[in-house]
Amino acid sequence: MTKLKNDTFLRALLRQPTEYTPVWMMRQAGRYLPEYRRTRSRAGDFLGLCKNPDLATEATLQPLARFPLDAAILFSDILTIPDAMGLGLYFSTGEGPKFKRPLHDEKEIYDLVVPDLVHLRYVMDAVSQIRKALNNEVPLIGFAGSPFTLACYMVEGRSSSDFIRVKTMLYQRPELLHHILDVNARAVTVYLNAQIEAGAQAVMIFDSWGGALSHAAYHEFSLAYTKQIVEGLKHEHDGAKVPCIVFTKGGGLWLESIAASGCEAIGLDWTVDIGEARRRVGDKVALQGNLDPAVLFSNPDTIHAEVGKVLHSYGSGSGHVFNLGHGISQFTKPENAAAMVAAVHELSRQYHSN
Ligand SMILES: Cc1c2[nH]c(c1CCC(=O)O)Cc1[nH]c(c(CCC(=O)O)c1C)Cc1[nH]c(c(CCC(=O)O)c1C)Cc1[nH]c(c(C)c1CCC(=O)O)C2
């Protein structure tokens, strides 16, 4: 078992005592950092950066060099899986991800199989290289998309705001969507377990679009498959527990069912009061979140006050990992991210009496 110099993040996820509230930021490596933009231009484009383990390691470490964050997250993307399935992922500047061969007809859907890990070898290489470079300073988070969120991109072929194709399939040909979701769930399980074997010390499942579903559809088409993954994960590696965080954007109504999925922690977006969330599920899981990323457009004094409100709402004791309620915007000033991290470390000590 490797000993971490700072394991505050892992202890908070396991609801064990800590001296302060650990903090990291979703999308902490990204376009708001000038050094990231330079690394990306050396790689050619975003996907080239994900597929080059040396440059992915460099990007992962950039935010840690600037801010005293309590965790690193693998630099990659959730869409590596559909890419490895042969859908032809590409990113056109300013328009987000697209697929050359989205899933439109029945034959394409029934031909879909769990990809061979050789096509995702570059991700595991990045994980082991990042672990070496981190030198046990802080833990490394691995991640994947939820089966439903991946299916949104695979069926729509690109980002969408109304999800017309995937929702039409859900109501008109549910068996086709169930087939995609089953393949995705098996693929994500194998993929996350490979990241854990390669050195990821916690994993996070991003269900960015589960919140677009109705109550019943969320349970049947999103949570059921996320649960299947959580059940198939390795919960221990190298003598240490490997906690799993489930983040459903817009999932505030369903915290009790998410907590029952078997995950160690729930990621919260900013629409939820974290204290109320704790009263609902805090005896079962840890909570991660949930500052509105837009707070970082303000100024250090406002950021300090808003961080204070989230910490106060959660209250005393362990089980809270501070984060934004969604990814940091590319238009954020890095010094405002620094102010947030400093405020969490300063203000949270009063809530931890040990
Ligand atoms: C839906 C989703 C995707 N990717 C991801 C999600 C789930 C999280 C969420 O809800 O935001 C997850 C993701 N994407 C990225 C990470 C890296 C790790 C981190 O720092 O948190 C993680 C965890 C890098 C990235 N992924 C992407 C970038 C920007 C690409 C660039 O450099 O131009 C980064 C740093 C591109 C990406 N990738 C995706 C989209 C929709 C986009 C375009 C969005 C945009 O333009 O802001 C798919």
TrEMBL record:
One of its GO terms (cellular component) is cytosol. Gene3D superfamilies: 3.20.20.210. It is an enzyme of class 4 (lyase). InterPro entries: UROD/MetE-like_sf, Uroporphyrinogen_deCO2ase_HemE, Uroporphyrinogen_deCOase. Residues 22-31, 141-157 form the Uroporphyrinogen decarboxylase (URO-D) domain. Keywords: Cytoplasm, Decarboxylase, Lyase, Plasmid, Porphyrin biosynthesis. The record marks 77 as: Transition state stabilizer. Pathway: Porphyrin-containing compound metabolism; protoporphyrin-IX biosynthesis; coproporphyrinogen-III from 5-aminolevulinate: step 4/4. Substrate binds at residues 27-31, 77, 153, 208, 326. The keyword RNA-binding does not apply. One of its GO terms (molecular function) is uroporphyrinogen decarboxylase activity. It holds the Pfam family URO-D. Its EC number is 4.1.1.37. Its main location: cytoplasm. Belongs to the uroporphyrinogen decarboxylase family. Catalyzes the decarboxylation of four acetate groups of uroporphyrinogen-III to yield coproporphyrinogen-III. Homodimer. This is Uroporphyrinogen decarboxylase. It comes from Sulfuricella denitrificans (strain DSM 22764 / NBRC 105220 / skB26).
